[in-house]
Amino acid sequence: MNKMFMSLRTAEARERFTADEAGYCASFGLSPEQQQAVLDRDWQAMIDLGGSIFYVYKLAMMDGRSMQYLGGVFTGTSEEEFLAALRAGGRRG
Amino acid sequence: MNKMFMSLRTAEARERFTADEAGYCASFGLSPEQQQAVLDRDWQAMIDLGGSIFYVYKLAMMDGRSMQYLGGVFTGTSEEEFLAALRAGGRRG
Amino acid sequence: MAEVIWGLATSHVPSIGAAMDRGKTEDESWKDLFDGYAPARAWLAEHRPDVAVVIYNDHANGVDLDVVPTFAIGTSDHYDVADEGFGKRPVPDVVGHPELSLHLLESLVDDGFDMTVFQELDVDHGLTVPLSVWTPDPGEAWPCPVVPLLVNVIQYPQPTAARCYALGQALGRAIASFPQDLTVGVLGTGGMSHQLAGARAGFINPEFDAMFMEAVETDPQRLTQLSRQDYVREAGSEGIEMIMWLVMRGAMAAEVTKVHSHYFVPASNTAAAVALFDNRAPAPA
Amino acid sequence: MAEVIWGLATSHVPSIGAAMDRGKTEDESWKDLFDGYAPARAWLAEHRPDVAVVIYNDHANGVDLDVVPTFAIGTSDHYDVADEGFGKRPVPDVVGHPELSLHLLESLVDDGFDMTVFQELDVDHGLTVPLSVWTPDPGEAWPCPVVPLLVNVIQYPQPTAARCYALGQALGRAIASFPQDLTVGVLGTGGMSHQLAGARAGFINPEFDAMFMEAVETDPQRLTQLSRQDYVREAGSEGIEMIMWLVMRGAMAAEVTKVHSHYFVPASNTAAAVALFDNRAPAPA
Ligand SMILES: [Fe+3]
Ligand SMILES: [Fe+3]
């Protein structure tokens, strides 16, 4: 799965991915669960299924999603709440 | 140039090379001297122009040339003489 | 011989580069960070070295993910800026210094450091953002050629802090033994505390960061006592990249003079900092 | 804990594999070499380990030439046999042992060895020929899973002999600390003296080879005193790959028992040898 995310570094690959996400995933041998997580943009599931944050983030960037949006997803808050916590000095604990 | 030799690891690349050696060399950005050395099978020149023996040998193998043949070229003897020297215990000095 | 004239520690968060590339440095959320860079930038503009060694990590942009070197060095005369998924940053490509690279490689290997060589390499924000922190308006070219030195900080097992500091000390010896007279700036990049994924996403630890900032100047040995687990716990799973500051520090003299430092929260999801150290012996009183 | 039960040093010349793959082992020019393998093969067939660690170098087949790691380790569960330019050798692919690989990686990094990780890797004759020397007729599978450990011996600056021996010692400690009970065979490959290109092509130095063969058993420390230049001068520009025998030797006990050795000239352009050492303490008298 990380190999698939890594491939999205070229504009040409990003176009092919956008044109047929399922087919693109299949060509990299993703498991059905991994493919579903990608199609659903289930970010937590992508991490749980072996995605590394730096690779997963490449897909998020294509979608125009910020690292703060992902932070909200991982911590079960909204992007606004997550950002507010950072602005207040970050999360502790 | 080493990158070009390295590419000859796949059967498909070997076919493309054989079909158009000059064009294949050009696609890897070889200098005119390097390309000439490849086309002429000037093994010493390939080494002198930066080819590493393990890479150059990939081309020799495609031509059905042995490492003993190359040894003869490098030492200015025939393949038979070179092989005889090895059989006699190798070259000293 | 070549001589390290300064060391610059700085975060390399991509959004710092993006804020500069998009002209947002005066925005409310960024102004304090960029104001904090100003004194360092002014001093650096007066002290341009002949070569810079940039210690950084790649983030799955320039290096294939199936190969993870603990320590690597680039030996090329040119490093393209990587496309990280949204086009290249609008900054100059990086000019290399193969002679110094090859000298450092030979010295480090002979000194027992098991370097990986990159004869070709695309460089990502880990290298270009620190260059932008140093030089906001490079024009056609960065101030000097660069030797990239890469550290694995993203995949377990990362090198220990002690090994990073030892690499820095060997780097200092290697620079000193270069036959030409060159001035060298050393950049240690990454940090400070942050964690991107998991339940601790957004984690920031200003007390640890303050301790680290103080100790990296005055007592770097103390920081080499901390384990990989200590760094992840105290600085977050990505904050461990601060071990790269120790490579820079190891290449410098026992006593350095702090020129300027600044700490800022948040830059993207991280605590960001800059710290600039003069490596030249202080003028006698 | 895992235990090294034997060490096998052997050349990895591609033509040895080709002679086997083409049924030429009884030919006049090969018979003495393969006859010399017989006693080692018989003993090894009686002492099959649970895992083998193969120390070898890639020859521009499995590793991109723009990346040159000094020391690398594979962590995969499967390694394809590489196509080196004339199709794959007709031998089984190699099964990995990721648990042992990851344990060794962690131990070696914590011990200050700056390993590069290959999460995927095609293995070339450097690894498969030694497996064939050990097991001429593997059938469907090699005798046991393999951990590949790669050393840069083809591009300057190679690691020093002393560093290779130190890596072997760390490898021995790392194997001993593996939590499962496993028996391990260690293969050090390459050599003996040879030079492929240049005016010295065909160079062979039987006196140096004899000294090395004796010292690797009884006084490996002596071999760590030799410099990179010593090896190239005495053993030829490719003969330096004998430093990989020192990694194997370092992983073994101070005292080992030689089971068998054999020296042969020429295998292709090289002096070839096999040497098998029992690592188990000799039975008390
Ligand atoms: Fe980073
Ligand atoms: Fe070899």
Automatic annotation (TrEMBL), chains A, B:
Pfam families (alphabetical): LigA (PF07746)
Residue ranges constituting the Extradiol ring-cleavage dioxygenase LigAB LigA subunit domain according to the UniProt record: 1-86
Keywords from the UniProt entry: Dioxygenase, Oxidoreductase
Superkingdom assignment: Bacteria
KW Oxidoreductase (keyword) present: yes
GO molecular function list: dioxygenase activity
Keyword Oxidoreductase tagged: yes
InterPro entries: LigA_sf, Xdiol_dOase_LigA
Protein name, per record: Protocatechuate 3,4-dioxygenase
UniProt organism field: Quadrisphaera setariae
From TrEMBL, chains C, D:
GO molecular function, one term: ferrous iron binding
Database matches in InterPro entries: Xdiol_dOase_suB (IPR004183)
A matching Pfam family: LigB
UniProt keyword DNA-binding present: no
Keyword Disulfide bond among UniProt keywords: no
Gene3D superfamilies tied to this protein: LigB-like
Extradiol ring-cleavage dioxygenase class III enzyme subunit B domain segment(s): 9-270
Keywords: Dioxygenase, Oxidoreductase
Database matches in NCBIfam families: PRK13364.1, PRK13365.1, PRK13366.1
Protein name: Protocatechuate 3,4-dioxygenase
Species assigned in the record: Quadrisphaera setariae
